[in-house]
Write a structure and sequence with these properties.
Elements lengths: L2 H21 L8 H26 L1 H31 L4 H32 L3 H18 L11 H9 L12 E4 L2 E4 L1 H25 L5 H13 L1 H8 L9 H18 L9 H22 L6 H7 L15
Antiparallel strand pairs: 1-2
Helix pairs in contact: 1-8, 2-3, 2-8, 2-9, 3-7, 3-8, 3-9, 3-10, 3-11, 4-7, 4-8, 5-10, 6-7, 7-10, 10-11
């Protein structure tokens, strides 16, 4: 794609992010209804971009974009699980969670752009990297299916521990500020520690998701557009699902299948079989996501509900786990 196409996409993403930041500048608590409306807006924007691609570049390009978008959207639900864990562990006040996620999205867009260009260049230059990436995705799928519950405490994150050692940090929150002054000395607040935990966690997720979309196409424009439009709705998705996460008990099996499928697809692309048709890819993605969600909801019928979402976001209440005693 030419530079002006990239410029238009970047400006559109920047405008949407600016609008989101302006409308949430008061740091209010986001309830389920508001989050659902915003989720609908972001999903509509992502689907509309696919329609524009269809009219401009044809059905094959649009189908490739939609396949990448669906994979990224599905994998982002797993991000939400981890973000909920981080917010609960650090007892993040509900009113400032959106700010953390907003800046987390900015970082995710930048990191993924780098990963996409590097990954696409490797796949185009060295054919054997397809086998490496494919094997990595299959192994990641295995880990997600059978070792999904192995989560280490967020404060054990090496980057978080390094920040706490290098930057003077106050173990409390000061509104929505990342830095403040204590006894005349400028220090980081606990909110900055949370942001770094979110960023480094998403960095790990980015490796999986970018590799999965590169299994569909090496077009950097399509891959980044699919990532960007899926990530834009990540904040609203979190506030929609925060109280319902316990119902998606089997979703990780579906995500594991998608990662393994992407790995096999990437390996097959360097064999006489070649790349699988986009309709087949889309069919596998939609069927896998649908089955895992329906299976989860049927298994947990009668538990959870939208009303629980607002209560689940009150991470700053006295019952929430405290992070001030974390090392």
């Amino acid at each position: 794609m030419s530079w002006w196409v990239w410029a238009v996409l970047m400006l559109a993403i920047a405008a949407m992010l600016a609008a989101d930041l302006f409308l949430h500048r008061d740091n209010h608590v986001i309830g389920f209804r508001e989050a659902a409306v915003w989720s609908g807006i972001w999903i509509a924007a992502g689907l509309l971009f696919g329609v524009i691609l269809w009219a401009w570049q044809g059905g094959d390009v649009a189908g490739t974009y939609y396949a990448g978008y669906l994979i990224e959207k599905a994998l982002s639900i797993d991000n939400v699980f981890v973000f909920a864990l981080i917010f609960s562990y650090f007892a993040v006040p509900a009113a400032v969670q959106h700010k953390v996620l907003f800046w987390g999205v900015i970082g995710a867009l930048m990191f993924r752009l780098v990963f996409i260009f590097v990954g696409a260049e490797l796949l185009e230059t060295f054919f054997w990297t397809a086998y490496v990436f494919g094997a990595f995705l299959i192994y990641t799928g295995y880990k997600m299916a059978f070792r999904h519950d192995e989560q280490s405490p967020p404060d054990r994150n090496p980057v978080v521990r390094l920040v706490r050692r290098v930057i003077p940090t106050d173990a409390t929150y000061h509104g929505d500020r990342f830095f403040t002054r204590v006894n005349g000395k400028r220090v980081a607040t606990l909110l900055l520690v949370v942001l770094i935990a979110v960023e480094t966690t998403d960095l790990i997720f980015a490796i999986d998701s970018v590799a999965a979309i590169l299994a569909i196409t090496t077009s950097t424009f399509i891959v980044w557009a699919a990532n960007a439009f899926a990530i834009l709705g990540l904040r609203s998705l979190y506030f929609c699902l925060a109280g319902l996460l316990r119902r998606f008990v089997h979703l990780h099996y579906g995500l594991a299948v998608l990662l393994a499928f992407a790995g096999v697809k990437l390996i097959l692309s360097e064999t006489p079989i070649g790349k699988l048709p986009i309709p087949v890819t889309l069919g596998v993605i939609v069927a896998t996501i649908t089955v895992s969600i329906v299976w989860s909801l049927r298994s947990t019928r009668g538990t959870g509900g939208p009303a629980d979402s607002d209560r689940a976001l009150g991470a700053g209440d006295p019952a929430a786990p405290s992070a001030t005693g974390a090392p």
